Amino acid sequence: MPVTALVSAKSCGVTTTALALTLASKRLSLLAECDPSGGTVRAGFLEGAASAGYGLYHLAAAERTGPDALAQAFASHLWPMDEAGHRKLLPGLTDPAQAAALGRTWPALSEVMHVLSEEAGYDVFIDAGRLALESGRLHTTLTPAPLLHKADLVLLVVRGTEQSLTLARHLIDPLRTELAERGNGPGALGLLLIEDGPHRAHRVAEVLKAPVLAALPFDPGTAGYFTNGGRPPRGYGRSSLLRYARTATEQLEAAASYRRIQQQYPRQANPVLAGVLARLGERGGARG
Residue 158 in contact with residue 200, Cβ under 8 Å? Predict the structure, then answer.
């Protein structure tokens, strides 16, 4: 199953999107709140149920002890988001000042997430927050760069508005270059479109010169529940956001599978495989 990192140029609903994907997945799933500016699910969707004794910050001290300690701490700091425990949350920072302590923790944490994905079959979604650049590179404190470097997919979350596309346009090339030089390759980069605004998937892909791998509807009722908690809105289980998020998780799995095969077997070496890759790529794309 893929490890998918979600980022934005500005507030575009990254946390809500990551939460929707995690809750809608048909597989075991994990949402890791790794936004250096702080996590919001604990106080919002969970309404404070998870205390500050749980979460990302505590993994920094464990990592300094060694990989076994980190793995044990990681498992003990996951919070169940359903009764069966199939959907889990690694709560984020309670204070942005804690972000500096995680600089050396990110690479080891990335390895743990990939083990969870590859060995235990989890869909792993990383809320990496708003992208921050320094001299054209990912900021080493304000962005969890090692998590993006190692992710199977890196999704820039955008809305279909002129403002959102304008902000994203200035980040797409530095992010692509970063993944080419330090990460899993520029092919790991894709877009996730929130269908709020006049621009549809084909136009967004054209403007930003990147594929739209999934699209989610603008659903204020369900999004508000994910942001603030409280009583689920009427028809929550059949909401458009959850239905399309379920489809999106399958599209992202197909896109990640396409990437893995593409990296292992150059398409020019086998024309039959090239046809298979083309079909996988079609399955991974968004509508519209």
Answer: no
The first and second tokens of residue 69, run together, are 């300690």
- Biggest CA–CA distance in the chain, Å, is 55
The tens digit of pLDDT for each residue in 73-126 reads 999 999 999 988 899 999 999 999 999 999 999 999 999 999 999 999 999 999
Q: Which two tokens stand for residue 74?
A: 């990681």
- Cα(239)–Cα(233) distance, integer angstroms: 9
Buried/exposed 126-151: b ≥16 CB within 10 Å, e otherwise: bbbbbbbeeeeebeeebbbbbbbbbb
* Crossing angle between the packed helical segments 271-284 and 240-264, to the nearest 10 degrees: 160
Q: CA dihedral in degrees (51, 57, 58, 59; nearest 10)?
A: 130
Nearest Cα residue to 221 out of 235, 205, 209, 204: 235
Residue type, 59: L
Q: Average the pLDDT over 165-191 and give the result.
A: 95
- pLDDT for residue 6 is more than 70: yes
CATH architecture label of 3-284:
3-Layer(aba) Sandwich (3.40)
CA–CA distance, 7 with 189 (Å, rounded to integer)? 11
Per-residue pLDDT at 10: 84
Residue 56, classed as helix, strand or coil, is coil
Q: What is the pLDDT of residues 30-85, one digit of tens each?
A: 999 999 999 999 999 999 998 888 899 999 989 989 888 999 999 999 999 998 88
Domain range list for the chain: 3-284
Tokens of 138: 């990912």
Cα(40)–Cα(20) distance, integer angstroms: 14
